[in-house]
Design brief:
By secondary structure, the protein is an alpha/beta fold. The protein contains 12 helices and 14 strands. It folds into 2 domains: 10-235, 3-Layer(aba) Sandwich (Rossmann fold); 241-302, Alpha-Beta Plaits (2-Layer Sandwich). Strand 7 (169-173), helix 7 (181-198) and strand 8 form a beta-alpha-beta unit. The longest helix has 18 residues, at 181-198.
């Protein structure tokens, strides 16, 4: 019999837009997902943050019915991703990492063909295409071939295309890849509008901290394991205080000496030493005086999601 906590979890799963329970997947001997469980409430902007090879794309493929998991279950929009693939596909919109547009067709032609795949036609399809073009600022480019558009505009066409059938859940795989900072900001604004105006749940995989920081919740996936799941603010609060980045000639030796003398959270990362410390500005003079001649520079800032990732995993996001 389930205990109270398990019953609460099951209740949340029942109401969840996306629910994953005890999900594992292997490619031969390699474990891509290791007992992953998470629940995403409706009308949320959720980021699955992790390095390349961490399991994000595998979970993306499972949730979009492109891959059958080795074990575990998942539902999207209340439909099982293995037993009810057709229902899942009717309830999701997908934006792939690499463009799925036909560059030789116009913007409107791409949308029209997408609508046909979902059984839309006639006046209703034309109306939905017109609404999508207007909404994403594409009306004046509707007759342009897609291959003449910028990367940011192509991403807007991808979004418009994925939403024609009015899905409950939008799943995006590394949607900011290749976009300049302005286009990335525009993309996140579009996703927030979908959440707030249409009640769409947006789940995105990303390795970009800025994208994850702009979301309501973040799940950190590393080596196939879900190592944290919380709001960006709560995750950064786990590090607490300030983060000092110290540069010296021998970072590993310096980190060990700092750890021995002062204790606390000390990591070697990206050629430097990261130290989590309350009231870090007061700690800097003491640190420098303790290790004369060994410290070349010290910078100080508030914790970021990158600091959280290093603290939880012991390595950086781009660690191989």
């Amino acid at each position: 019999m389930a205990n109270e906590g398990e019953r609460d979890h099951l209740a949340r799963d029942t109401d969840a837009a996306v629910a994953v329970r005890a999900m594992s997947h292997r490619y031969g001997q390699r474990v891509a997902l290791n007992d992953v469980s998470l629940s995403i409430a409706p009308q949320r902007l959720f980021a699955l943050l992790g390095p390349n090879g961490g399991g994000k794309t595998t979970l993306f493929k499972i949730l979009t019915t492109l891959l059958t998991p080795s074990s575990g279950t998942a539902t999207v929009g209340g439909a099982d991703v293995v037993r009810e693939r057709g229902r899942v596909r009717s309830r999701i919109g997908i934006v792939f990492q690499h463009p799925s547009l036909d560059g030789k067709l116009t913007v409107t032609e791409n949308l029209t063909h997408q609508g046909h795949l979902y059984g839309l036609s006639g006046a209703e399809l034309k109306r939905r295409c017109a609404e999508a073009l207007e909404r994403f600022g594409l009306a004046d480019r509707s007759r342009d071939r897609v291959d003449v558009l910028s990367g940011g505009l192509q991403r807007r066409v991808e979004l418009a295309k994925s939403l024609l059938h009015r899905p409950q859940v939008l799943i995006l795989d590394e949607p900011s890849t290749g976009l300049d900072p302005g286009a990335r900001m525009s993309l996140m604004e579009n996703l927030r509008e979908l959440r707030d105006r249409d009640g769409v749940t947006c789940l995105m995989t990303t390795h970009l901290m800025a994208d994850a920081d702009a979301c309501d919740e973040v799940g950190i996936l590393d080596e196939g394991r879900l190592v944290a799941l919380d709001t960006p603010g709560n995750l950064k609060a786990r590090v607490g205080g300030d983060v000092l980045t110290v540069r010296g000639t021998e970072p590993a030796r310096l980190a060990e000496r700092v750890r021995t003398r002062f204790g606390g959270a000390v990591d070697v990362f990206d050629g430097g030493v990261r130290i989590a410390r309350a009231r870090g500005h007061e700690f800097v003079p003491e640190l420098i005086e303790s290790f004369p001649g060994e410290i070349e520079s010290v910078t100080i800032g508030k914790p970021t999601l990158e600091d959280v990732f290093v603290r939880l995993t012991g390595h950086g996001l781009h660690h191989e």
